[in-house]
Design a protein that fits this description.
The chain is mainly α and 140 residues long. It is built from 5 helices and no strands. The chain has one domain. The protein is globular and about 55 Å long.
Length: 140
């Protein structure tokens, strides 16, 4: 299994945990019921750690969109399945759209080129020094 595949599995697990913590938050009555509050705290932490690890191999924007989309779809799906929210064909249709968009993002090829301007790590020491002097108002 490749590093990127592991990252996607980790992202999916983190999205599932997002749905768990969102559901637990709803059951916690404003964080006043101990068990759902504890589940919320643990799953939020694990979900964030998983997202943080996944973005080492998946671009942040893509990872966040997939994480939120899958988590939201599962949360609404669970709420409808358990009767907390009324069932609606339109909700199911729109949730399908969210899942389809997440699958579309997953299917895109990995882009290994840095964004325009690159990151600070892509710049040379001279570039950073020139930028630092410029920021301080010192001519290069």
């Amino acid at each position: 299994m490749t590093k990127r595949s592991v990252a996607w599995l980790l992202l999916l697990a983190s999205a599932v945990l997002e749905a768990v913590w969102a559901t637990a938050l709803g059951l916690s009555d404003g964080l006043t019921v101990p068990l759902p509050t504890a589940v919320f705290a643990v799953t939020t932490t694990l979900s964030m750690i998983g997202l943080g690890l996944a973005i080492r191999s998946i671009p942040l924007g893509t990872a966040y969109a997939v994480w939120v989309g899958i988590g939201a779809a599962l949360t609404v799906g669970w709420a409808m399945a358990t009767g907390v929210e009324p069932f609606s064909v339109l909700k199911v249709l729109f949730i399908g759209g969210i899942v389809g968009c997440a699958a579309g993002l997953k299917s895109l090829p990995a882009d290994t080129t840095p964004a325009a301007g690159g990151s600070d790590a892509d710049r040379t020491e001279a570039d950073r020094s020139d930028a630092d002097r410029s920021d301080a108002g010192i001519p290069a």
